[in-house]
Amino acid sequence: MNNFAEFLSRFQFGFTASYHIMFPALSIGLSWFLVLIHGMYLKTGKVEYFRIYKFWTSIFALNFSIGVVTGIFMSFQFGLNWSKFSYAAGPVLGSIIGLEVMTAFFLEAGFLGIMLLGWNRVNKKVHFFATLMVAVGTLISATWILGANSWLHTPAGYKFSNGQYFITEWWHAVFNPSFYIRYPHMLLASMFASSFLVAGISAWYLLKNRYLSFAKTTYSISLAIITVLIPVQLWVGDTLYAKMAVYQPAKTEALEGFWEDTPTAPYLLFVNPDFKNQRNDVQVGIPYMGSILITHSLHGTVQGLKRTPPENQPNMALTFYFFRVMFLVAILMFFTALTSIALRFTGSLFVKRWFLKMSIFMTPAGVIATIAGWITSETGRQPYVIYGLLRTEAAASSLSNFQVVFSFSLFLITYIILLAAYIKFICKIVQKGPEEIQNTLKTDERKTDNFISGLPEGIKLNVK
Amino acid sequence: MDIHILFALVICFAAVMYTIFDGFDLGVGILFPFIKNESSRDTMVDSITPVWDGNETWLILLGVGLFGGFPKAYSVLLPALYLPLIVMVIGLILRGVAMEFRFVSVHRKSWWDAAFSFGSVMAVFCQGLVLGNLMEGIKVYKDIAYRDITFNFLSPFTILIGLVLIVTYALIGATWLNFKTSGKLQATFKRFVKRIIFCLLLLLILVVFGRFYLEIFIPRFGAFGIGRILSLPSIVWYIATVILTAAIYFTVDRKNDILPFVLNILMTTGSALYIVSGFWPYIVPPDLTIFNAGSPAYGNRILLICSLVIVPIILAYFIYSYIVFKGKVSGKDNYEPSLAESELLKSKVKVNGNDHAGFKVLTMAWPWRIAISLGGIFFFFVVLGFFGDLTAQLAIAVFIVIFLAACFKYQRI
After folding, report:
1. Which residues pair with A417 in a beta bridge?
2. Residue A102 in contact with partner chain B when CB distance is under 8 A
3. Collapsing DSSP states into helix, strand and coil, what is residue A296?
4. What is the DSSP letter of A305?
């Protein structure tokens, strides 16, 4: 067994997958935001909504293209680095993801062109339909991919023969026990990712006193979305936690940071786990909070990781800290939402500078929470890749160290450059701001050159 | 018909669709360095921006179809061709992103241009390496030191196939651009088409004869089509290719712009079918056939049935999308959403400073506002923490209703 290559393959998967999830998460939320805006435009006919739509599609386009191309690698990565896993689970996962490609990716791709570039070529209602189809595509795509991923967490509806897993009951396999709750959790997370982005950028305009009516509309809408959804998300998250405690006890044990069963447990904020001796060297926490949050009672017992035999334990530090990140960011979001209610109804939502600054600060909050949540979920189910069935170290390909070092460093460099460029271009688009509508009036003046206008030679445009 | 064969047909279909459709947009990337003029470059990219992302989806279908339908082939093929596939993916990522970024970038546009063409060429070359390796055959190694197979994918034959693929895609790209552009630029591509045809024919001759007579080009495992230089399919393919390339050569100067592109599609499809049929019944020669690499499971049958239903629907809206973007490309302006003057007049933008006009505003002192925030957090955790699911759900529902009602009463959303 080549340990270093396998170790690095894990990091490569973790890195490329976390990188990839940022963009689909933003795309799902933004596409539904755009559907809403387009619907408002159709209903009210206000130019303001058109401006919002146009501005946010330009950001959506960048976002979507990175999501698509980084997604290509995800579909190859199973075979490249985890060939034994792909051999075993191919009949299940390949079928589910295959359906995703056919029902969702093609739908998105087919209508994306019309949505982004076809405004002048189809009528408004068809264009709305295209926007809707892209949004529906993102939703369908999330359904299948969450089904596939949840199957790895809670396998169901399968049979095992000749070293391979086969689906016996299709709907049980896709809509497996943990799917029902992980799916809404992820959808809500992507709503937050996009809403905080929208809120942050609008807050920046409000703070700089630019494009006020544009920024007020989007700021208000995005904060309203956040306010409505955040309690739902906290409840869904709590329910998911309870579910996971049943299906994957090792994960919930690890993410609380206790080794022993602890009654009247504090809510730990800092731990220094020592795997060898199965104890924490240092731990700092808030008294009572742990029992309240986890068992919903003052003196409830929080289970410790020692219940799981050491060879089946996930890495406590990773699981613990990423869960803390997600949870604390969620609390910050909750605070933002509630404050926005108070400010909204006292008429000072667009005026309070500290709150605008806080919104800017919270721009990446949704994305950070999404990534942290995924890392918690995926490291928490180690050492298994198919929970309880296939261990991760038995799933790797036989690759040489050179191959994985080469590919990982290539991805590291490319992805970091792309992320830097992506953020820079978003800043540039924001700096430039939404165009004033007078500038986007259709005129023929810009099309004097026949070569650019695309007419065959010999035909002259009549420029008025 | 046997489920394996049907599934293999679906995968072949995806492969052929990919070669044709991503062929022309990768081809645009390959031809990019030869066009220096900035606005011409914009036009070239504009011709593919509405469709490239759909074209690339065929590759994902190909990969995933293999994953689901032939997991054994997938798990043997991919690690064996690790490096070329990684470089191909990086190439595709670079070009896809560069295409979007070059329109936003101002100072570093030339960098993104370079990334676009470099990524395209790398991706195509690596696809050629993969194809070449498949034609040479990939041994299923059981116990061999890993490092021995790291660079096994490189051989004169596979490199040659890589070059052939670059030229093939360049040709599709050139006929596509001939179809989509106009004026001087189109004339340039007409010249390109003729030159590329010569390169392609030379390379093809090298492949066909080198495979049998030149020592360095003989495939290592000899899996693909050895001894078939004069078999019926080969002869049909030689004749068809010669006729079609000649037809492209002579029709490219005609008025009918779409004809060379259509002929090119025919030629590519024919060649792809010839290659695919050469594999029969292997999927990864010389060990894996479509029968011993497949997974005849219930799940796959669902996937297969769905694909037979869904693929026609996909084709329908793809055709619609191509119809929407039909005609010659006419610069970025055309894609930019704009409003007609009539619509602007219909809705006058209100230049009213006070956005709260007409809405009641509550007055609340700051201690109250902070109390609402902290009280809300506390209330939520108490409800969620101690009173069980139903209460929590009810509380959330009531909260949302009150909030939305208040929004509509006191303030616009």
Report:
1. none
2. yes
3. coil
4. G
Average pLDDT value for residue range A129-143? 93
Alpha carbon of residue A361 to chain centroid: 19
Contacts of B393 in chain A (CB under 8 A): 235
**pLDDT of the residue at B351:** 43
Angle at A226 between CA A220 and CA A231, to 5 degrees: 140
The H-or-E segment that residue A285 falls in is strand A279-286
Q: Within 10 Å of residue A200's Cβ, how many Cβ atoms?
A: 22
What does R_g of chain B's alpha carbons equal in angstroms? Answer: 29
* Interval B316-353: pLDDT, tens: 888 888 888 887 887 655 677 777 666 666 555 444 44
Q: Which residues of A touch B344 (CB under 8 A)?
A: 47, 437, 441
Interaxial angle between packed helices A316-345 and B388-410, expressed in degrees from 0 to 180 and rounded to the nearest 10: 40
CA atoms within 13 A on the CB side of B335: 25
Which among A47, A65, A101 is the nearest to B61, CB-wise?
A101
Residue ranges per structural domain of chain B: 3-334, 366-410
Could you tell me where the DSSP H helices lie in B137-155?
none
Mean pLDDT, chain B, whole residue set: 80
Tell me the three state secondary structure of residue A280.
strand
Residue A86 pLDDT level (bands cut at 50, 70, 90): confident
Rounded Cα gap, residues B315 and A313, in angstroms: 48
pTM higher than 0.95: no
For residue A105, give the DSSP letter. Answer: I
pLDDT band for position A16 (cuts 50, 70, 90): very high
The residue in chain B having the minimum alpha-carbon distance to the alpha carbon of residue A111 is: B321
CA distance B256 to chain A (A): 12
pLDDT in tens, B139-189: 766 544 444 567 777 888 889 889 999 999 999 999 999 988 888 888 889
Q: Is A118 on the interface with B (CB under 8 A)?
A: yes
What 8-state DSSP symbol labels residue B56? Answer: H
Domain boundaries along the sequence of chain A: 3-257+304-453
From the CA of A50, how many Å to the nearest CA of chain B? Answer: 9
